[in-house]
């Protein structure tokens, strides 16, 4: 990833693909049991999928972001690619989440 003011030089296909990360945003609440259930699953996915960036957004802290993404149920997982929403998984559907992440990962 580039630091502020840094220009990234892409000289290989792999370095090109590195710039188009798949991002998973986990909208969660600390008091929500289904959200807590998904934490160890997300930790394992993050270990298995180092090319995917995982974010956790507390819906009680970042209410504006939660509203911007039209999240009304948690956990909700928004998958972004190149800054655009490409998919969404609502609830504790761990198999569906893994399938959709794999579907949207960069192909090398």
TrEMBL record:
Domain Thioredoxin stretches: 1-106
Signal sequence bounds: none
Pfam family, one: Thioredoxin
PROSITE patterns: THIOREDOXIN_2 (PS51352)
InterPro entries per record: Thioredoxin-like_sf (IPR036249), Thioredoxin_domain (IPR013766), Thioredoxin_H-type-like (IPR050620)
Coiled-coil residue windows: none
Name of the featured protein: Thioredoxin domain-containing protein
Source species taxonomy: Eukaryota, Viridiplantae, Streptophyta, Embryophyta, Tracheophyta
